[in-house]
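Dear colleague,

Thank you for sharing your sequence with our group. We've completed the structure prediction you requested, and as agreed, I am returning the results in plain text so they can be pasted directly into your records. Please verify that the sequence below matches your submission; if there's any discrepancy, let me know and we will rerun it promptly.
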Amino acid sequence: MTYEEVLAELFLHEDEGYRNFHGKLLKNDNVNLIGVRIPVLRKLAKLWKKESDCFLTFPDEYYEVTFLKCAIVGMLPFDQFCQCVDLVVPLLDNWATCDCFDAPCIKKNREAFLPYVARYLADEREFVARYGLVTLLRYYVDAQYLPLIFESAERANADQYYVMMAAAWLIAEVVIKFYDEGLAYLKERKLSAPIHNKAIQKARESFRLSKEQKCELNALKVNKEKQYEF
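Please find the predicted structure tokens below.
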């Protein structure tokens, strides 16, 4: 498998309309898109899942190549995944690649992966920190990890838009899944105002909460320290 072969296959699936649409959603002019739809990328990742060593040597001049790197690394067994994850997480430079970077092997190895999560959460790079928060959201929203989740959301940098949104999304999921604990936490007002209010908004958008619960949450909104445009 060569880089040229991968590019040739990707350009066979080029969709100009999708490229323009997805590029606007990414809101990152530095991302170079071919325009391959995500379901196609997932199929290609499965086809090339044994080619992780090759892919890790490829340059990251295209969004799709980096996406494939992450997808293929995410399919590795846990030990191999841990050997590669630090190579791909720093490549994350947009919300789509970050949020689609899923590694099912973490589910049965949550404790062993916590040091990695802690390192990513403490990183100043926006999408590295977001990956840490999204990983908590995907695999750690359980009662035993609530203290870790609350602490991580409190430390999240609300001045970084995609970090702020991920922290809010994480707290909203806690509120939905563990309403009493989430409500009690929000009443403590330990979060920054943007994360606090956005978490309430996201929770209130869920069909899994009652009207009464949504009203109760709405009463907990605070004055924003910063105004964001959504």
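Summary note from our side: Residues 49 and 72 are 5 Å apart (CA to CA).

Kind regards,
the structure core
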